[in-house]
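dumping this here so i dont lose it
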């Protein structure tokens, strides 16, 4: 139910397919890596690793050939990801990847040595595709990796493997994370080399007291079998978490003396403090409204708090403003300070925090920093994305690290959503432009002047037909929401048309963005506009639009209430439009959007006549603790549990009057099928008729198995056409 993407050049389509379908299968990071000089970058392409210069599209240098990537007697390696040693003499190859929950984060690793001209596999004695997050040591002499929840190092010259931890099990996890840390904090890579290559700092997650959610697989063998998933639901204690530092020479671990109960807090971020003697980490309390930054003197094992922030709702983690990646610390001033993002003044702003705890606000004003793009300390600037005047768009800005006035770099005529990969020296930007009627265009620009260097010259598609329209609607409660609308092809204002609302509505993502394809309904077989539907989406309070903290945090302890009220009251205003047929109103959504669909159907049956809900959380107390407790509080007694119950669709199921299609995969390890069965029981109890489609052993994305996607698309389309017929009347 989460995952926010800021920079991807396919942001809209990825949003539709990764956020809601959630069937992402990819390596841990993209295949592009900047060179140290900040001009060239490396990329895996056509079975090779090449060096490209974005200033000259014709310039290409092959660094690693297919021959170099071909083990003796085996096919050439397929490169999923790679990294070079600091001296450039070795390259680490990630291949033969396998999926772990959402992403392909385990596989095989090989090292090519340019000087020795050798290609060697790491962890040859380990099971195939069992290695995770292999990294070369800073001095280039070793590699470290996780296999089956234990840490290992391997000497790159001798091939000697050394085991550093010995207690790893399915429940005791060293160097990586359990399901819920990965799902809700985006934490995957769980260990860090010290700069001097003598130690490794790592997370240990102890889930021994976490209950398994046992899913039943009835399709893959004659006899059904249980698939256990370690899954702490809201109200259940989290896994215990602690940080260890293991000495490479002795394999002895020292556990950091971080204050507090290991169970009642989280550590979503940890790095070496730009030296080999200190660790810096962020500790969140269980309610995720108190953030402490500790610096730990490792030799003395002495921690000190250098910064604390509290909030009466919740505090977002780094992955929110760093493209879903919590890794790394934004150091400045030779490790004496770092850049921090906070919304404690009501807007998401950048600050500089010294290692002594002194804090200086950098960005100021009534606007949000959407994402931190690059720190160019040598040039003295920070590059970031923002959109002070239009919450559906985003543009590139820069500001001096010392503060001052932010300067917009994106040209004024490129109105829409602008995304950038910026070189380390701040002089090159890989720019992707899109708006709701202009497909994605990629160019290379020089910065800060934003001069075109190569690629497609950005041009807005002013001749687009059937342009989606943006609008604002103000509810009876005084809430003004952004929306988009696609009118039917050959629209006749004298006729009335059915309206289909697409919803998500929760803090994980916004649906109203000025991006190409945002209005595409990937479950509809055909063209909804050609068939005569009005399609609309609204972003209510609580969605992560750059409208300030008050907008985003209004949903605190109110999921299932505030978002539903806003959506319904917005729909009421829309139904006043003369071309909208109030007797043909449909709503649909997936995951959190499925929950919203159910609540709208049940709480406002006078508005919504047809609903299609997919993989919905029907009972909030059945969803995972990190997500649900962040936004709803920790349910420790009847009073605190009541807000979960008040927001749950099951509570209102008896009010169903319209047509409901409910879809869920029985193998969903995210929103478990229990949600569907609780909903079914309540609808049966009150004799509320509905249509159910259960997809056996499918996950949250409902894409596994031959014909599944087409079947779901056909089902969706036929149901919508039958119960909410298209066309003007």
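and the seq i came up w/
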């Amino acid at each position: 139910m989460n995952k926010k993407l800021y920079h991807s050049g396919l942001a809209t389509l990825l949003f539709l397919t990764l956020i809601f379908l959630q069937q992402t299968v990819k390596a841990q990071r993209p295949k592009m890596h900047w060179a140290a000089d900040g001009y060239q970058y490396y990329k895996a392409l056509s079975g090779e690793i090449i060096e490209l210069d974005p200033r000259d599209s014709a310039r290409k240098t092959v660094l690693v050939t297919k021959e170099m990537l071909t083990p003796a007697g085996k096919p050439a390696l397929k490169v999923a990801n790679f990294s070079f040693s600091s001296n450039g003499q070795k390259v680490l190859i990630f291949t033969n990847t396998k999926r772990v929950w959402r992403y392909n984060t385990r596989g095989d690793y090989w090292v090519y040595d340019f000087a020795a001209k050798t290609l060697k596999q790491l962890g040859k004695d380990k099971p195939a595709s069992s290695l995770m997050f292999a990294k070369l040591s800073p001095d280039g002499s070793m590699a470290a990796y996780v296999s089956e929840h234990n840490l290992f190092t391997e000497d790159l010259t001798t091939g000697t493997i050394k085991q550093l931890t010995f207690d790893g099990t399915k429940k005791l996890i060293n160097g990586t994370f359990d399901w819920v840390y990965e799902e809700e904090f985006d934490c995957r890579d769980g260990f860090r080399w010290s700069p001097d290559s003598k130690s490794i700092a790592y997370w240990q997650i102890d889930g021994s007291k976490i209950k398994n959610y046992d899913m039943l697989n009835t399709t893959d063998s004659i006899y059904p079998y249980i698939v256990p998933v370690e899954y702490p639901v809201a109200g259940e204690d989290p896994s215990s978490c602690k940080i260890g530092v293991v000495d490479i020479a002795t394999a002895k671990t020292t556990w950091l003396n971080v204050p507090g109960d290991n169970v009642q807090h989280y550590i979503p971020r940890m790095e070496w403090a730009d030296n080999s003697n200190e660790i810096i980490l962020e500790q969140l309390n269980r309610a995720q409204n108190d953030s402490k930054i500790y610096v730990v003197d490792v030799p003395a094992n002495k921690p000190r708090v250098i910064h604390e922030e509290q909030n009466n709702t919740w505090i977002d983690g780094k992955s929110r403003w760093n493209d879903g990646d919590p890794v790394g610390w934004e150091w400045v001033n030779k490790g004496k300070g770092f850049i921090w993002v906070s919304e404690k003044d009501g807007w998401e702003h950048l600050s500089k925090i010294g290692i002594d705890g002194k804090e200086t606000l950098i960005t100021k004003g009534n606007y949000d920093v959407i994402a931190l793009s690059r720190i160019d300390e040598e040039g003295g600037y920070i590059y970031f994305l923002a959109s002070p005047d239009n919450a559906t768009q985003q543009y590139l800005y820069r500001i001096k690290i010392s503060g001052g006035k932010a300067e917009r770099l994106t040209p004024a005529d490129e109105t829409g959503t602008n995304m950038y990969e910026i070189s380390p020296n701040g002089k090159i930007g890989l720019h992707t432009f899109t708006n709701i009627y202009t497909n994605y265009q990629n160019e290379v620009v020089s910065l800060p002047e934003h001069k075109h260097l190569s690629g497609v010259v950005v041009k807005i598609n002013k001749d687009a037909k059937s342009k989606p329209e943006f609008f604002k609607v103000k509810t009876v409660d005084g809430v003004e929401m952004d929306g988009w609308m696609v009118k039917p092809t050959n629209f006749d204002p004298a006729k009335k048309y059915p309206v289909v609302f697409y919803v998500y509505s929760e803090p994980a993502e916004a649906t109203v963005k000025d991006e190409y394809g945002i209005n595409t309904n990937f479950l509809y077989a055909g063209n909804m506009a050609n068939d005569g539907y009005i399609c609309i989406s609204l972003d209510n309070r609580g969605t992560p639009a750059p409208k300030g903290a008050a907008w985003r945090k209004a949903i605190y302890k109110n999921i299932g209430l505030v978002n539903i009220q806003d959506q319904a009251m917005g729909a009421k205003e829309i139904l006043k439009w003369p071309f909208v047929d109030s007797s043909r109103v449909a709503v649909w959504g997936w995951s959190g959007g499925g929950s919203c669909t159910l609540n709208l159907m049940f709480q406002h049956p006078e508005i919504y006549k047809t609903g299609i809900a997919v993989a919905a959380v029907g009972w909030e107390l059945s969803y995972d603790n990190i997500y649900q407790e962040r936004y709803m509080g920790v349910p420790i007694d009847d009073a605190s549990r009541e807000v979960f119950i008040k927001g749950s669709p099951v509570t209102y199921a008896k009010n169903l009057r319209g047509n409901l299609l409910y879809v869920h995969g029985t193998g969903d390890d995210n929103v478990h099928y229990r949600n569907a069965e609780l909903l079914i029981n309540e609808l049966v109890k009150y004799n509320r008729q509905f249509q159910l489609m259960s997809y056996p052993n499918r996950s949250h994305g409902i894409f596994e198995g031959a014909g599944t996607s087409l079947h779901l698309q056909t089902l969706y389309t036929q149901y919508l056409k039958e119960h909410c017929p298209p066309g003007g009347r």
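The CA atoms of residues 502 and 537 lie 5 Å apart.
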